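Class prep. Write one:
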Amino acid sequence: MRLGFTGQDGQWCVGTPKVGLPRFYALKFSRVECKSRYDKVDFGYVAGLGYQLESGPMIGLRYNGGISNINEGDANPNKIRNSVFQLYAGFLFGGK
């Protein structure tokens, strides 16, 4: 499911839910194995806006926000959530 708006002059905005899965769960440093203490699944949302010229260049700003507390276990009561801003530039070959 994705909700979005595209304007006539090249501006756009989008919002969608997301599910995040980690790339790896355990790390090994020298002789000590460190298991990740974070949850394996992160539920959240993505919201962004941007602008694209008809000739292909684009620029955008996006925010990924987590809803789930990814800090696992009772030993640490602190809640940790993912929060990422992304600024990007791109080019769509062939234009719009």
Remarks:
- Residues 3-91 form one domain.
- The chain has one domain: 3-91.
